[in-house]
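User: structure tokens for this one?
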Amino acid sequence: WYQRRVRVLNMGAYRDFVQSRLVQAQYWHDPLDEATYRKKSRFIAEINQEATIVPEYKSNLLKLSNFTLIKFTKDSMVTPRESEWFGFYSPGQDKSLYTLQESDALWNEDRLGLRTLSESGRLEFLEVDGDHLQVPEEFWLDEIIPRLRD
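Assistant:
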């Protein structure tokens, strides 16, 4: 299923018409064609500071008192699942993964401020045992609601 989805996305995800009308295409990051991704992505490459650096994105993120990232362990929508915690495929292939903490741009260069948030105790990583956005009520009550009160 994954390979079929990738072929379909690669046929048109970076076309202006598709990028401007299909939000899923704006989240597509082709690990085998980083140059096109950085040049043509209208959302995810920009917001992750991979296409251009916008200092306001980092300064705005650093205003947060807490930033909680949630990964769904059985996610059938997001590939790779590690990207829910800002991980991704190592350059030029779609097998080996790196974590946020191994990322040059997002961690070592701290383009978004994620390392700064982590070092100040304001970045959290949570996992939900389930599929994409399927959050059990108990998880909301025990894990999410208390964090919203802070």
